[in-house]
């Protein structure tokens, strides 16, 4: 596994619905790009932080969770 941990801010991957958080046995956290499985232009483990991405899709809120003030 390529070593791209989340010591730095993940940027867009943090709330992209196509990202998957992977935690290693050593406690490191990685963001895997699920878009990479269908489109080879996207790296499996993006260099963080991702500041601009053509594949970014904002996560939808969890059902039952509503924004309140
Ligand atoms: S599509 Fe872009 S923003 Fe989304 S997980 Fe992949 S690299 Fe990150």
Number of helices: 0
What is the overall silhouette?
globular
Count structural domains: 1
Q: Element order, helices and strands?
A: EE
Oligomeric state of the chains in view:
single chain
Bound small-molecule species: iron/sulfur cluster
Describe the largest sheet. Answer: 2 strands, antiparallel
Strands side by side in the biggest sheet: 1-2
Q: Can you count the beta strands? A: 2
The helix/strand class is: mainly beta
User: Percent of residues in beta strands?
Assistant: 5-15%
- Could you list the spans in which at least 5 consecutive residues all have pLDDT below 50? none
What is the CA-based Rg, rounded?
Answer: 13 Å
Helix content: under 10%
The overall pLDDT, averaged over residues, is 87
Termini separation comes to: 42 Å
Describe what this molecule looks like in 3D.
With 69 residues, the chain is an all-beta fold. The protein has one domain. It is 0% helix and 14% strand. The protein contains no helices and two strands. Strands 1-2 form a two-stranded antiparallel ribbon. It is globular. The structure holds iron/sulfur cluster.
